[in-house]
Hints:
By secondary structure, the protein is an alpha/beta fold. The protein is about 30% helix and about 35% strand.
Amino acid sequence: xxxxxxxxxxxxMPNNALKEILNYLNIKERSVLRKVNRTxxxxxxxxxxxxxxxxxxxxDSISLNLDGIGIEYSVEDEDKCEIQVGxxxxxxxxxxxxxxxxxxxxxFKNPNTRIKNxxxxxxxxxxxxxxxxxxxxTFFDELTQNGGSGFFVENLHIEDNDxxxxxxxxxxxxxxxxxxxxxxxxxxxxxxxxxxxxxLQWQRVRDFRLIGDVxxxxxxxxxxxxxxxxxxxxxxxxxxxxxxRIFIFILTVLxxxxxxxxxxxxxxxxxxPAPFINAHLILGNVSVSFKQNRITMEKYE
Length: 301
């Protein structure tokens, strides 16, 4: 007996089946799907989406990477911008910042968007940082007005040395989601670090990496009590770490920490007395190894 069966249709599928399908779609495919009709837009927006986002700000251009999909927005002419995706480009009658903001809005306005890794670079320029804040603040304000508490970001990677700027970005991240913070100072001194060390978001960080210098390093070292893993990589000779400072840090901070597991400080200006080079010590509940330019610390069970 012949029966007529309707062809499969996404917007009439059971929710569980549709959710499984959405899990296999990348962020670009989800964006296309949500434009089909209201049913699919609701399904996409109600489903948790995990993405990786990288934003690089240059003079007159913004580079956006969403889950490996690279998009570049640049100034073409007055009130015109060029969008380039791979080898394909097009010219739009719009400002390049507004165009990038509109594209990001599809994802950032979705309260269920989870950002696994967020990488931000504004070339140490206050003018470019202002553009970044303008973009992020637009979506942050909308999230908070709708009852949200900020962007859902797990790992944050910032290339800058201004603690005040870093703090401004951190305040827009939900305190319940951030676990990792990486700062790359590109050879410069990290300054005004107290501007982010006093934030609740910092208290939730469990994995911290600093590439650059801190002078003096006491602020950072004393603030590592809540961190499980840290790596401070001093990339020039400006930051002096003394043997006495490390002993005090281990005894007063790491020994008192409930979270600490592993840490490392690398610097070419490490002041360790010759008898302790290549030595291994147990200081309280921390195992310490001293090398010429590196100190490794691990929780001692």
